[in-house]
Design goal:
Blueprint: H1 8-37, H2 42-73, H3 81-112
Helix pairs in contact: 1-2, 2-3
Length: 113
């Protein structure tokens, strides 16, 4: 049980969880984009923004755990380290876009409201 982090199936589970979290984040983000263009209420948009933030943070934690598994198992598993680095860069890219849109939306609501 102490060497659970060295088991290949544990690594695979976290890789799949990371993929699911990224796709959920993107799905909710696109729902936010569609719903904000449809003119729904401000409370609904803020609620969707909160969901995207929570899913993005979960994605970040899972991807950091993936990178830790990669570096622990790089000799034992035939794991491509660039795969984990690409996933972190992808998440940072999406988080950056999301934060930019969130800041712009918040500033525009403050100046209008």
């Amino acid at each position: 049980m102490r060497n659970l982090h060295r088991e290949p199936w544990v690594f695979e589970v976290f890789v799949k969880l990371g993929d699911i979290a990224i796709f959920l984040t993107l799905g909710v983000f696109f729902i936010f984009l569609i719903s904000s263009s449809q003119g729904i209420s401000r409370e609904s948009v803020v609620l969707i923004l909160n969901y995207v933030t929570i899913l993005s943070l979960i994605s970040a934690v899972i991807l950091v755990i993936n990178i830790v598994f990669i570096f622990f198992n790089k000799k034992k598993l035939s794991v491509n380290i660039t795969l984990g680095i690409k996933r972190i860069l992808l998440l940072v890219f999406f988080l950056g876009i999301f934060l930019f849109i969130n800041i712009i939306y918040t500033l525009s609501q403050g100046s209008l409201g």
